[in-house]
Amino acid sequence: MTNIVGYARVSKRDQNPAAQEAELHDRGVNIKSLTEPDIDTTTPMGRALFGIVAVFAQLRVDTIRDNTKRGLAHARAEGRVGGRPSVMTPERIEQALRMRADNHSIVQIAKVLGVGKSSVSRVLSERPLSGR
């Protein structure tokens, strides 16, 4: 018998709840929830309630996922994108490219620009020098 605090932490994200319960049952694992007293997979009613709770838990996950996708699509349609603005402004990019053309190291460029080495590396890899 395995005791759980709540069903939400039992389920694998994309696994069918009925298949999950059957797999656990086949392995001799029964579940009893400490917060949902009627969920006890040793009884037929408990197995049924486990399935019902699983369906609603999946519905909640799917609803959150759909709302997030819709919100991101709406923001993109309005020209807004997520994430932090890049520290590499067009001026810094131009200076980094000039310095690299003059054979400065990435460490030297990052130090002069006051940014991290990874920011410089990323910009330089996206914009290879012509003639190299």
UniProtKB/TrEMBL annotation:
Any Pfam family the entry gives: Resolvase
InterPro entries named in the record: Homeodomain-like_sf, Resolv_N, Resolvase-like_N_sf, Resolvase_HTH_dom, SSR_resolvase
Superkingdom of the source species: Bacteria
Name of the molecule in the record: Resolvase/invertase-type recombinase catalytic domain-containing protein
Family (UniProt): Belongs to the site-specific recombinase resolvase family.
MF-aspect GO terms: DNA binding; DNA strand exchange activity
Keyword Secreted: no
SMART domains found in the cross-reference section: Resolvase
Coiled coil: none
Keywords: DNA recombination, DNA-binding
SUPFAM superfamilies in UniProt: Homeodomain-like, Resolvase-like
Domain Resolvase/invertase-type recombinase catalytic, chain residue ranges per copy: 1-79
